[in-house]
C-alpha cells in the first residue's frame, strides 16, 4: 500500500529497514550518471554515488525514527490552558514526486489539556516527518495528528509555508511561489476566534532574531 494510504498510527511508527544493499544503491546512482551522459569514473564523480546515497539516506532518515524515541519522555503534566506556539521552524523536506527539496517553515501551536511537551520536541516531530518523501499536505497533517495523539490537547494548529524546488528549478519554473497548507484540529477547527488568534500570532514579526 502506498504510504499516503497508511493510517495515522502506522505513519507514526518507524518504518522497516530497507532490503536493498548499499552497493546496489550506489550502483543505481552510477547508472543514473551514465544515463545523463556523464563519466562516473572521472575524478570529481568517483565518490558521487556514495555521497548521493549518504545524502538521500540522511534526508529520509525520518523513516527510521519513532515518536517514542524522539520524545524521550518529555511530556509533562501542567495545569495551563493557554496557547503554546512555536513559529518559524525551518523546514527542509523532499517532494515524493521528484525527490527535490521543499524549503520553508512551519508554525505549530496547541492548547494544552493537562499536558505540555518539551518545546524542542515540537521541532523534532516536524523534522522526523520532513525527513521522509512527502507532499506538503501530508506532512502538515502528520505533525498535527502526532501532537493530537500524544497530548490529547484542546486543539492543534499547524501551518506550513514552503517553496518547492520542483516548481522553481524545473517544470512550471515559478521561483516566487509559496504553498501554504494548514491542519486545524479541535478548538482551532471549531472556534474561529482561537483560529484567528493563531493566524495573527504567526503573521506578527518577532522583535528580535537570534
Ligand atoms: N499537492 C502537492 N503536489 C505536489 C507537491 N510537491 C510536488 N507536487 C506536484 O506533483 C505534481 C506531479 O505532477 P506530474 O504531472 O505527474 O509530474 P510532472 O510532469 O513532473 O509535473 P510538472 O511539475 O507540472 O512538470 C506536480 O503538479 C507537482 O507540482 C506537494 O507537496 N503537494
Ligand atoms: Zn516535486
TrEMBL record:
Q: Where is the composition biased (Polar residues)?
A: 8-22
Task: State any single GO MF term.
Answer: GTP cyclohydrolase I activity
Enzyme's top EC category: hydrolase
Q: Which keywords, in A-to-Z order, does the entry hold?
A: GTP-binding, Hydrolase, Metal-binding, Nucleotide-binding, One-carbon metabolism, Zinc
Q: Give residues annotated as binding Zn(2+).
A: 95, 98, 166
Checking InterPro entries in the record gives: GTP-CH-I_C/QueF (IPR043133), GTP-CH-I_N (IPR043134), GTP_CycHdrlase_I (IPR001474), GTP_CycHdrlase_I_CS (IPR018234), GTP_CycHdrlase_I_dom (IPR020602)
Q: Give the EC number.
A: 3.5.4.16
Q: Where is this region: Disordered?
A: 1-22
- Which is a Pfam family this sequence falls into? GTP_cyclohydroI
Show the catalytic activity: GTP + H2O = 7,8-dihydroneopterin 3'-triphosphate + formate + H(+)
Q: Quick one: which pathway? A: Cofactor biosynthesis; 7,8-dihydroneopterin triphosphate biosynthesis; 7,8-dihydroneopterin triphosphate from GTP: step 1/1
Q: Identify the CDD domains for this entry.
A: GTP_cyclohydro1 (cd00642)
- Give residue ranges for domain GTP cyclohydrolase I: 25-203
- Subunit comment: Homopolymer.
Family statement drawn from the similarity comment of this UniProt entry: Belongs to the GTP cyclohydrolase I family.
> Record's PANTHER family?
GTP CYCLOHYDROLASE 1 (PTHR11109:SF7), GTP CYCLOHYDROLASE I (PTHR11109)
Protein's name according to its UniProt entry: GTP cyclohydrolase 1
User: In which organism is this protein found?
Assistant: Roseofilum acuticapitatum BLCC-M154
What's the gene?
folE
Amino acid at each position: 500500500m502506498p504510504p499516503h494510504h497508511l493510517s495515522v498510527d502506522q505513519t507514526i511508527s518507524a518504518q522497516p529497514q530497507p532490503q536493498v544493499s548499499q552497493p546496489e544503491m550506489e550502483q543505481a546512482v552510477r547508472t543514473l550518471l551514465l544515463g545523463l551522459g556523464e563519466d562516473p569514473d572521472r575524478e570529481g564523480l568517483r565518490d558521487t554515488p556514495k555521497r548521493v546515497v549518504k545524502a538521500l539516506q540522511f534526508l529520509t532518515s525520518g523513516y527510521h525514527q519513532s515518536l517514542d524515541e524522539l520524545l524521550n519522555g518529555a511530556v509533562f503534566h501542567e495545569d495551563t490552558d493557554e496557547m503554546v506556539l512555536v513559529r518559524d521552524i525551518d523546514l527542509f523536506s523532499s517532494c515524493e514526486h521528484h525527490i527535490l527539496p521543499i524549503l520553508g517553515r512551519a508554525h505549530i501551536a496547541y492548547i494544552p489539556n493537562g499536558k505540555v511537551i518539551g518545546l524542542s520536541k515540537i521541532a523534532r516531530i516536524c523534522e522526523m516527518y520532513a525527513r521522509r518523501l512527502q507532499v506538503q499536505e501530508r506532512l502538515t497533517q502528520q505533525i498535527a495528528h502526532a501532537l493530537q495523539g500524544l497530548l490529547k490537547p484542546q486543539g492543534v494548529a499547524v501551518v506550513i509555508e514552503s517553496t518547492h524546488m520542483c516548481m522553481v528549478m524545473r517544470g512550471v519554473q515559478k521561483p516566487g511561489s509559496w504553498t501554504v497548507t494548514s491542519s486545524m484540529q479541535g478548538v482551532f477547527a471549531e472556534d474561529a476566534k482561537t483560529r484567528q488568534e493563531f493566524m495573527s500570532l504567526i503573521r506578527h514579526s518577532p522583535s528580535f532574531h537570534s
